[in-house]
Amino acid sequence: MPDSTQSFDAVVIGAGFSGLYMLKSLRDQLGLNVRVYEAGDTVGGTWYWNRYPGARCDSDSYIYCFTWDKQLLQDWDWSERYPEQPEILRYLEHVAARHDLKRDIQFNTRVIGGEFDEKANLWRVRTDKGDEVTAQYLIAAVGSLSDTNLPPFKGLERFKGKWYHTSRFPKEGVDFTGKRVAVVGTGATAVQAIPEIAQQAKQLTVFQRTANYCVPARNGKVDPDLVRSRKEDYEGIVQRVRESFFGQEHYFIPKSALNVTAAEREREFDRMWDAGGFAFWLANYQDMFFSEEANDLCADYIRRKIRSTVKDPAVAERLIPKGHPYGTKRQPLDTNYYETFNKQNVLLVDAKTDGGIEEITEKGIRAGGKEYEFDIIVFATGFDAMTGPLKALNLKGRGGRTLGAAWAEGPRSYLGISIAGFPNLFTITGPQSPSVLTNMPVAIEQHVEWIADCIADMRKAGMTTIEAKPEAQDQWVGHVNEVVGATLMTRANSWYMGANIAGKPRTFLPYLGPEGVGGYRKKCAEVAAKNYEGFALE
Ligand code: NA7
């Protein structure tokens, strides 16, 4: 039964990694009365919704987990180098059970609105199940990549076959056996899904708008000795990833790619390529993200790999990225992605040179004047990243101003955690925080701990509201843009830039701080130590 009268100390929206830890912290450390609303029917967030074939985390499993449960770090055994979606879901279910979290989570319930009541200094929150509750603190733990982007393709309603978006795959899975299948998109999701679908489908046609630079994941079992030594060193690992740039044990080579011999460079590139994972992206030469010339040396190495893997030279050329520097779009990790295009049943349609997708027909997709027939279309077209899930909450701050209006020209936040005009609202891994540029649990834990400490400090000091000052927010936005402006990151039409969504303001969404998430952590700690500098407390 929906309840219409309850008031809480805090409402948390979302029961993924961030919502679960936020609940644990506020309820079990601070003793607050907390309600979590979650749209799914169980915990998991991103890992609840993204069930497409091949769905797997691209961070190594030994660091893609909570570090606050020390015993669980020792007890939980991941089965492979990268955790697969069902395994992460099992892990989060286990955490929820172990800490008795579900009793404060209302599932199958979506928050559809929230207004800050300036007289009562409370948030009034509404859900699609008819709940109307109040909370002193409102915490958005909605994830950065949870608002599905299904581009408005003309004619989709006419299609007689089945279609799915990768982020809303049916729980029971999809049987592609003997089917003619289309995959639209070639981002990190599609790069995982395509080789899996190609193994089942009679015919797979991939519609590529922008080719990506993919590097091998090299998934597999982890050497038991390495697992053991990591468990013995978890304290060190946790400290290192917290202080690191990307929340991973990856460190740039402290040299310019331009100041080494071609032979040394090739050895380093081979080493990173063979290691697999994000090494090539996040532990490359230190000028890779800054110098076009250095960047092109990295890109050239991958171009050569594509040409040597893909047998048909015309297909290889289509798979070679053009028009954006290496690493400026999210690095997809692949397992047999390029090899898949050597299969007889796989066709690559370049949505640029062969003409874009014109429409969906009854039978399939018309692109470049040609109709392709399908039984199933899989849209791997991504998300309205970072701002999308927050705007979808329909929040109104002071003066009834909506978040949509406040962010009409792009997000504006202070530290990516707070928004001027929206008192007592916290955004876990919000825009303009390191978030998606890190191994997410590291960024999530840092935000959750900062928010819990902030609320504890406020209660001790008898304060009831905290709100970012507009001038502190302006400075932060300026800083975020200045830092990224010195890099090559703004050159790509990436979802980091909001460029994947028609009409979305072109602005870099996460924070690429000069010292990464480690430096950002220090900055947030300094703000707190200086009595929440840049915030107004009452
Ligand atoms: P992405 O990375 O946004 O990829 C979406 C793909 O879909 C990408 O190749 C897009 O091409 C393509 N796309 C989007 N709209 C269209 C239209 N209208 N026509 C043709 N192709 C289109 O989403 P993912 O789900 O792969 O990954 C998102 C993140 O999840 C990932 O980065 C990880 O952090 C986890 P484009 O490149 O925009 O030209």
List keywords for this structure.
538 residues, 16% strand, five-stranded parallel β-sheet, alpha/beta, binds ligand NA7
Indicate the radius of gyration in whole angstroms.
23 Å
Oligomerization:
single chain
Separation of termini? 36 Å
Query: Low-confidence segments, ≥5 residues, pLDDT <50?
Result: none
Shape designation: globular
Number of helices: 17
Largest sheet: 8 strands, mixed
Structural class: alpha/beta
What value does the average pLDDT take? 97
Number of β-strand runs: 20
Portion of residues within helices? 25-40%
What proportion strand? 15-25%
Question: Which small molecules are bound?
Answer: ligand NA7
Task: Describe the secondary structure blueprint for this structure.
Elements lengths: L6 E7 L3 H13 L4 E4 L8 H4 L20 H6 L9 H14 L6 E2 L4 E7 L4 E6 L4 E9 L21 E4 L14 E5 L3 H13 L2 E6 L6 E2 L7 H9 L1 H10 L18 H14 L3 H4 L9 H18 L3 H7 L13 E2 L2 H4 L5 E5 L6 E4 L3 E4 L2 E4 L2 E4 L7 H5 L3 E2 L6 H4 L18 E3 L12 H22 L4 E3 L1 H16 L30 H14 L5 E3 L1
Parallel strand pairs: 1-2, 1-6, 2-3, 4-17, 6-18, 7-16, 8-9, 8-16, 9-12, 10-11
Antiparallel strand pairs: 4-5, 5-6, 13-14, 14-15, 19-20
The structure holds ligand NA7.
Descriptive overview:
The protein has 538 residues and is of the alpha/beta class. Helix content is 33%, strand content 16%. The strands form five sheets. Strands 1, 2, 3, 4, 5, 6, 17 and 18 form an eight-stranded mixed β-sheet that branches. The protein has a five-stranded parallel β-sheet with strand order 7-16-8-9-12, covered by helices on one side. The longest helix is centred in the last third of the chain and has 22 residues, at 440-461. It is globular, with a radius of gyration of 23 Å. The two termini are 36 Å apart. The model has no long low-confidence stretch (mean pLDDT 97). The protein binds ligand NA7. The site of ligand NA7 has 22 residues, from helix 5.
